[in-house]
Amino acid sequence: MKPSIVILAAGIGSRYGSLKQIDQVGPSGETIIDYSIFDALRAGFGDVIFVIRKSIEEEFKEALLKRWERRADVGYVFQELEDVPAGFQVSPDRKKPWGTSHAVLTAEKKIGGPFAVINADDFYGASAFKVMADFLLKARSEENAYSLVGYELSSTLSEHGSVARGVCQADDRGMLVDIVERVHIEKTPRGIFFKDDQGQFAPFRGDEIVSMNFWGFTPTFFGFIKRAFENFLRENLKNPKAEIFIPLVINKLVKNGQVTVKVLETKEKWFGVTYREDKSRVMEELTKLVAAGVYPKKLWA
């Protein structure tokens, strides 16, 4: 059975200023999602499941879904604020989704075996999909053996503002032992800095391995998310900005010895559109890859 791929596309994109998931960046009008699906299919993935918001359904279907439905088994699910366990009441002050762990949970009914999770607005590179597909093709659905694709921090930063990254620590076997979400990471003339837990700026070397939200899971992860989400709601239901990110859930599971996570290596160059100003760089990088023969000029010819 081929693994599935879940694409998280429900983010509001407030920093970017528009629905960046459907912005055209390729030489023939392709989006970053187009390249992700192209790479996923040729790496060995099967069905594609999008997590979107109900409010963008028609725009999403018109702009993107039609071009894929003849090439792959494509479906979608909704991530909505009201989708919480029984007994919890959503605060009227809450405007944004509950975070990436909640987004993954919404896809449960579409998943029947091992699956990968990616962001809609990140370019991961062909070999990243290959190493993930190879891992998942060997994965057993009932086991708690997961994976993530790691990237070097210095190659994942924007020239136009700060970013957040899950900073990873692995043992000598390449198994994850710690992942910490760091915020306000920024490249400056003096080096790379982030805000620590006390709100003070601290330095990074730049060669740290970080997660760009390219994860590999078996269906056992859904049970862990459900329990984690309920605990999160008990503590944060009245906080309108709190989110439950995948690294937060994974870190606790790893620390408790409940799961293993293999950090998969790749030499791929990541790029993405965190800010609108990032778009020109993405277009330049894709043009180079097309010129080098990595991708055809017209992806879906």
Count of separate structural domains: 1
Q: Describe the biggest sheet? A: 11 strands, mixed
Indicate the CATH architecture: Alpha-Beta Complex
- Mean pLDDT score: 90
Which percent bin holds the helix content?
25-40%
Distance between the termini: 27 Å
What overall form do the CA principal axes indicate?
A: globular
Structural class: alpha/beta
Top CATH class: Alpha Beta
Characterize the structure shown.
This protein is α/β, with parallel strands linked by helices and 301 residues long. The radius of gyration is 18 Å and the shape is globular. 28% of the residues lie in helices and 25% in strands. Strands 1, 2, 3, 4, 6, 7, 8, 9, 10, 11 and 12 form an 11-stranded mixed beta sheet that branches. It has helices at 32-43, 57-68, 100-106, 126-138, 220-236, 246-255, 279-291; strands at 4-8, 48-52, 74-78, 115-119, 122-123, 145-152, 163-170, 176-188, 191-195, 201-204, 209-217, 260-264, 271-272. The chain has a single domain, classed as Spore Coat Polysaccharide Biosynthesis Protein SpsA, Chain A (Alpha-Beta Complex). The longest helix is centred in the last third of the chain and has 17 residues, at 220-236.
